[in-house]
TrEMBL record:
Matching CDD domains: CD81_like_LEL
Broad class of where this protein is predominantly found: membrane
Paired cysteines (S-S): C159-C192, C160-C177
PROSITE patterns linked: TM4_1
Spans through the membrane: 12-35, 56-84, 90-113, 204-228
UniProt membrane topology term: Multi-pass membrane protein
Any GO CC annotation of this UniProt entry: plasma membrane
Family: Belongs to the tetraspanin (TM4SF) family.
SUPFAM superfamilies reported for this sequence: Tetraspanin
UniProt name for this protein: Tetraspanin
The keyword Transmembrane is assigned to this record: yes
Localization in the cell: Membrane
Amino acid sequence: MAVAGCTKCIKYMLFFFNFIFWLAGGVILGVALWLRHDSQTSNLLILQFEGHQAPGTFYISVYILIAVGAVMMLVGFLGCYGAIQESQCLLGTFFFFLVILFACEVAAAIWGFMNRDTISKELINFYDSAYIKAVDVSGSPSKDAAIKVLDVFHNTLDCCGKGDDTALFKQIAGTLCPKKSPADFVTNSQSCHTKLIELFSEKLYLIGLAALVVAVIMIFEMIFTMVLCCGIRNSPGVY
């Protein structure tokens, strides 16, 4: 029941693409684990202030990426084995999982596009809530906790303030940002708002690029799988 001619070429091309797919799953899994344990994001997202945890929307996309990477490795192995064995059953199962993965990826891409600014905005709001308490001259009970939260932001992102800081903040900036010199606040102050936007924009861009590469591979795999299944069905000895 072995296929021949162009169909045999398709068989080995499908095996090759499945191997690449399996490798891509491993790479995505590794990148997702790195994003999950990256020191910059971890330091910020474990913070708590006034009983509220720092927003963890970013981790939703990371956990989705971990699940996708693991499933891709499993499905890639299934596709490789099905192609070599020329099994219509395995290839049909592989095609089914590909369609499900592709649909989930499209849904995740739509969600990510609609919420692309949400992650940085949530953390900016979290930073601002601590910032207001830290510069409060009335002696708020949570002032010390707010200063500690800002200290983590400033050290992690190498920033200080919101970029439009008041004269009051500049007076106490030496305490909140001990690594910055007075000249930095006048001429080259690094806004924590800008740094937060840059941080998560870079990471979301990396996730989006990985998803695009995987989507292209999946489209080719679905085409080759259908062609190979038809070739197996029409080969001599298959009824």
